[in-house]
Design a protein that fits this description.
The chain is an alpha/beta fold. It contains 14 helices and 13 strands. It has helices at about 15-25, 40-45, 75-100, 115-120, 135, 145-160, 195-200, 220-225, 250-260, 270-280, 295-305, 320-325, 330-335, 345-360, and strands at about 5-10, 30-35, 55, 105-110, 125-130, 165-170, 185-190, 210, 230-235, 245-250, 265, 285, 310. The protein has a seven-stranded parallel beta sheet with strand order 3-2-1-4-5-6-7. A six-stranded parallel beta sheet has the order 10-9-8-11-12-13, sandwiched between helices.
């Protein structure tokens, strides 16, 4: 049994969902300690209370949004500044924990303090996230504006950490690797799927599912009210029904059941949820959040694969919804569920590396 330290970004539910799925697949053979900031801690701490998985709270970087969903750049920078001021003390604190508890391996899902502490302590670490596609993948198929944004965002991704022994990129799309990253410990896998998704049996029960994170501009709800199908909306809390729309509080079990049973999904363009929906053979209409260029890239590849469509959040209209619903069977016919399941290869990569490390000094990539 190995001791594994695991950290993640606290921004959004995707990172926490991915980390929980990996931890659940490893916890019967290894001791898992999760370092989680913000929303991720709030989600994972109750889920693992009283279990053999230890969840610890750490500070983290996060984005701040205006009421209309736009990125609040000044407040985001202010929040980042506060994190940076305390960063060195945080890293020293984590280094002390590493030296006392002596983990065998560290995994990070886009969180900088734990892998940097690991490097200082001589402990190998694995990067497992979606964001590293911006560094290792050939994105020349993107429109020129998105290529520019991808290069700009990749600088941020590079700044988080470097020197990982393996880079596992989890994504619902698979652009080719850049030549210099072939044979350099980079592994492309599908989405990391939680057990409840894997155990679900997809059906088509005649309703549309919508997940709207933090906010919904008025035009989105106006368009959804024109749906010929009932619409179940998650993410906005419980509200009185409005015509064909019913509103539901976030409940993982109920949401997964509805995801498995819906005709299709309307959501923001996060990698994790889109991948889960495609695994369940649900076409997706994605609406990238304003100024979130990573989501624009996700949406581009969704359309390129022919498994869904997208439009900017503020532009979603009744016509977009009608066109999407008219093409559902065409989208569904292009979905190959098996390719979206990244669990087996991701876990094999971790276990193989642990075995390699136990047999000698691990090679750095």
């Amino acid at each position: 049994m190995a001791k594994i330290f695991f950290s993640m970004s606290g921004e959004g539910r995707g990172h926490a969902t991915r980390v929980k799925a990996v931890a659940d697949l490893l916890r019967d053979r290894h001791h898992i300690v999760i370092f989680a900031p913000g929303d991720a801690y709030d989600l994972l701490a109750p889920a693992y209370h009283g279990t053999n998985v230890d969840v610890r709270n750490i500070p983290g970087l996060r984005f701040v949004y205006e009421a209309d969903g736009r990125l609040a750049q000044v407040r985001t920078l202010t929040t980042a500044g506060k994190y940076i001021v305390g960063y060195m003390a945080l890293r020293r604190q984590i280094q002390r924990v590493i030296r006392v508890e002596k983990p065998d391996l560290i995994i990070t899902d886009f969180e900088p303090s734990l892998p940097r502490a690991a490097r200082n302590c001589g402990i190998p670490f694995i990067s497992l996230n979606h964001q590293h596609f911006l560094i290792v993948n050939d994105l020349s198929s993107l429109p020129s504006a998105l290529q520019w944004h991808a290069k700009a965002i990749s600088l941020v991704v590079r700044s988080y950490y470097y020197g990982q022994a393996r880079t596992i990129v989890s994504s619902f799309y698979f652009p080719p690797l850049k030549e210099k990253y072939r044979n350099r410990g980079v592994v492309q896998v599908g989405v990391i799927l939680r057990p409840s998704i894997l155990q679900s049996t997809p059906t088509q029960d005649g309703f549309l599912l919508a997940y709207l994170r933090r906010f919904a501009t008025p035009n989105v709800l106006e368009a959804l009210r024109t749906s010929p199908l009932p619409v179940k909306v998650y993410g906005l809390g419980e509200r009185p029904a409005e015509g064909c729309i019913t509103y539901h509080r976030i409940d993982e079990s109920r949401f997964v059941k509805d995801l498995a049973a819906c005709q299709a999904l309307v959501c923001t363009a996060g990698n994790q949820l889109v991948g889960e929906a495609l695994y369940l053979r649900k076409p997706v209409f994605a609406m990238p959040e304003v100024n979130n260029h990573e989501q624009y890239i996700n949406a581009h590849f969704l359309r390129q694969e022919g498994t869904g469509d997208w439009v900017e959040l503020e532009s979603f209209s009744p016509q977009h919804l009608r066109d999407f619903l008219d093409r559902l069977e065409s989208f569904r016919a292009r979905i190959v569920p098996e390719k979206y399941n990244g669990n087996p290869l991701a876990i094999k990569t971790v276990e193989d590396f642990l075995s390699e490390s136990a047999g000698g000094s691990p090679s750095k990539h």
